[in-house]
Specification:
Blueprint lengths: L14 H12 L11 H29 L30
């Protein structure tokens, strides 16, 4: 079954749309693809990129939202601290 419903579309021909067009023609549906003028092409490209950028941003936000937060360091990052190696003080390296 084709992903394309009957109708008129103004879209950039992406790989996914190209596959849907191929599927529609294989089952005998009529598909007409035309070149756009420079003005039409520019506005369609801007709209396409805005949608793609929004989708990518949503995906990144979902990953960030689901990520576990790293533990806070014992020594505040906003303060300069002298690491002395004293018992009970933060240590450098992997040794305990």
């Amino acid at each position: 079954m084709s992903l394309l419903a009957d109708g008129v579309y103004e879209s950039i021909v992406t790989q996914a749309l190209e596959r849907a067009i191929g599927e529609a023609t294989r089952v005998g549906r009529s598909v007409q693809v035309e070149d756009l003028s420079a003005v039409e092409g520019t506005s369609l490209l801007v709209r396409h990129l805005a949608i793609a950028e929004g989708d990518a941003l949503q995906a990144l936000l979902a990953v960030y939202r689901d990520a576990t937060k790293p533990p806070r360091p014992q020594t505040p990052l906003s303060l300069s601290s002298l690491l002395t190696g004293a018992a009970g003080e933060p240590r450098l390296g992997l040794g305990a």
